[in-house]
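Hey team,

Sharing the Aminotransferase class III-fold pyridoxal phosphate-dependent enzyme run so nobody has to redo it. Sequence (380 residues) first:
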Amino acid sequence: MNMTDYKSLDAKYYMPAFSRTMMIRSGKGCTVWDADGREYLDCVAGIAVCSTGHCHDHVVEAICRQAKELIHCSNLYYVPGQAEFAERLATATRMAQVFFSNSGAEANDGALKLARLATKRKEAVAFTDGFHGRTIGSLAVTHKPAIREPFGPLEPKCSFVGYGDLDALRKAVTTDTAAVLLEPVQGEAGIIIPPEGFIEGVREICDEKDALLIADEVQTGMGRTGTWLTMHQTKVMPDIVSLAKGIASGFPMGAIAAREGLAFQKSEHGSTFAGGPLAMAAAMATMDVIEPILPDIAGKGKRFAELLAKWNPRVRGLMIGITVGEQECPKVQQLCADRGVLVNCAGHGNLRLVPPLIISDSEIDRAAGVVNEALTEVLG
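Structure output:
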């Protein structure tokens, strides 16, 4: 089917919730090909999802091997691979126990449920420009008015304060606050890095007010910034962590990890598909690939930072953000695509690069060269 016919079919039968113009037909490593066979260096990676690149042999083999034995079994039974991966993830995150989900939004929903159970409180505090998902629960703690307001009233009740503003946070956290949700780097906002000492200050306020600290590491976790959790680069340990995106190389999966003393008991939470055999195989293989390259990720980010230095990039591992402008960013994105490099525009006109963690130095050089050319053409 040609793309004209495909677009017509899509327009007729698929709800028009997305803006898109091209189809990615196949991928390998950091490279993808569109429906016309054109090649691109992918610095979007499914929005920080394809952490091991596209169709990594080790991940594909693990999924295929498991698919030949068992594709699904209910959580009414012990699931092959589930306990083994739970141990590995708990160890990597330095948490006590985990619970699996099917997405980052679902993980954040679960984290909120667990916080409300543990504290017997009902409200939350989150940050302006934070993004935690689009389910009703995760949307309640997501700041962007355009995607929140059509669906109100939302639960849990949530107060929003400026990212980096500890004084405002101290006033906002009350005896009704179950949890504060924090992204250690704001991804959808455009790779916004918090001021020095901010995360430590959030932990202190949570401790003072007996509120839990939920670290949303859906985008920042699983090695994206050079450690399994970005929170590991601070002196702070959260009470609950939410994970997804890069956890299983593109297989739909999320997780929450919690410290000792925080756990769902029988019938308090559940999921039909979560933690299934295929997800466990994909996630275990993903960690196999990422673990040996973790020490290299900070250096890859530094290489991007040096090559893009003219534009004052914000860089934390392989999360790169550049302020471009609401009108200008789409132009830069398109110019990059025209020259064979995929990037995307996040919030407030910020250009975002979140390439596969396996990206090579030569691929970094190529991507940075194209981005520099596009930015120079648009911004001068």
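The first strand starts at residue 24 and ends at 28.

Ping me if you want the raw files.
A.
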